[in-house]
Every structure is written in structure tokens, then in C-alpha cells.
Amino acid sequence: MFINGAITALVTPMKKDSSIDYESLKNLINHQISNGINGIVAVGTTGESATIDFEDHIKLIEFFVKVIDNRVPIIAGTGANSTEEALTLTKAAESIGADAALLVSPYYNKPPQEGIIQHHLKIADEANIPQILYNVPSRTASFIEPSTVSKLAKHENIIGIKDATGDMKNLDDLKRLCLKEVNSNNFYFYSGDDFTSLEFLKLGGHGTISVSSNVAPKIVSEICECFKSDLKKAELLDRKLRDLNKNLFSESNPIPVKWALHKIGLIDQGIRLPLVELSEEFKEPLEKCLIELDLI
Predict the structure, then answer these.
(1) Which of 77, 144, 165, 179 could disulfide-pair with 44, CB 3.0 to 4.6 Å?
(2) pLDDT tens digits, one per residue of 182-218
(3) Is 108 a catalytic residue?
(4) 130: pLDDT strictly greater than 60
(5) Predicted TM-score of the model (pTM)
(6) Given the residues 107, 151, 154, 162, the one annotated as active site
(7) In whole angstroms, what separates CA 178 from the centre of its chain?
(8) For the CA atoms of 13, 18, 19, 22, what is the dihedral angle to 10 degrees?
(9) CATH class for domain 5-231?
């Protein structure tokens, strides 16, 4: 299975009382697809997976599958630091009909590389759905080493990695160690860092799983679409997003992106504790970006 191009790690819209706003979510999904997005991640980090309870997590994946209705691939965020919990969520995503699952490296308990290998192999052995590894050590304190990725890439159900390190040397190591699987079209690389996503694509990446595309899906889609045929245009569009990319990470994701979407008028102000509304000092710079991009 090959998912490429611009993939949005979508927020989970909430009302002011922090309940999930399914009507806004439906509108957001349709807005993303109408603006050229190639795939959508449901209930990932940007979707506040850390504060979504188990029942709502599954209900959200079901809702995504129903609304998307095979128009673009849906990647369900099913990672957890408990292997059994991640396995249960991944099996649920499989049974619901998600196209793939995104599994973050086990966080907080800081397993050794052998623990990471066994964690992912157990899930890949028992859940028959394409799985994408997610390496984001800035949030997990758990780094998936390239040599570990190369071992996991041999499993038929592990089809790629989302690399949020922003380190192109890491990508070089991944390409070298996973060369056989990549050349066989069995393993794919996805950027998880909006700041460096175009560079990642230029160096052999297959797509980007983006936060910024929540706000600017058309621009992110165009970058992924044209970087091979018209690099100058892609670089120009990427420069247009530099300030937005910066300001969407002024505080912990998804605080800024949810504020931006509210400012645009696409969602309410809800966000779940311990996350809170964007600090006043960061609102003006982010609002300026939205104005410059003609989004408000």
C-alpha cells in the first residue's frame, strides 16, 4: 500500500466544554479533501490522542472512516506506551476499516531498542493492517534508531516511518539501511517536521504528515504535488509558509493550530487539559501569518 503526498495530522475539534464537536470535524475533513490533501491522520498527536479516552478514540476513527468514505486514505493514530493498548487500538482500526495505522514510539517508559523492536513486531504480527512507525523523540524521549527501523521494515505490515526529527542525516541513514525495502516499494518515508518537509522530499521522502496543512492545506498540497516538476515554485510556496510553520509551534502542538483554526472560523475554542488556549503573546504573530496568507 502506497500513501504519498500531503497528509494532514488533523486536529480534533472540541466545544468550549471540551466535548468532541463532530459537526465541525465533518466540515474540517471535507475542507481538507476539497483543498487537495492526499490523506488524513485521525487521532494522532495533533488530534489530542493523549487526552482522548479509549471509547472516544475508537468512535472518532469510525467517524473518520464514515465521512471520508474512501475519498482519501485514512491513517489512524493507534500508538501507546503500553503494547497491549496499542495493539487493541490497532486491531480496532483494522476492523473499522482504516487504511493504515500510525504508531508512535513508546513514550515515557523509554524502552531500549530491543523493546521497541518487540513492541512493533508484536503489533505487526497480530494486527493485519499497514503500519507506519512514528519517531518523535522530542515528545517521547524514545528514539527509534535507523538500525532498528531497518529490522522492522522487513515486516510486511510495517510500511513506513514518520520522521519528526528534522535531521536529514537520519533520513540518509534510513535510506541506506532500508534500501532493499524502499526499492521494492515496500517501505516509505514521511516527514513529520513542517520546517524541513520540502528538504525531506527533495532528499527522497515520499510525503509529509503535516500540522501546517490543517491551516493551509492547499499550499502544502501544491508543494508536495510540484516539487519534482517545478522546484522553484515549491520553494516559493515553502517560503510563504515559513512564518506559519514557526508560529504553529510557538507552544505545544496542537495549542497554536487549534487557535488558528478558531480564528479562521473553522472550529470552536475547545481544547483538553492539561493543554490550554494559546498565550496572548503568541496570538498576534500567528494572526499576522493568517492575514498574510489571506486566510482571514
Answers:
(1) 77
(2) 999 999 999 999 999 999 999 999 999 999 999 999 9
(3) no
(4) yes
(5) 0.97
(6) 162
(7) 21
(8) -10
(9) alpha beta
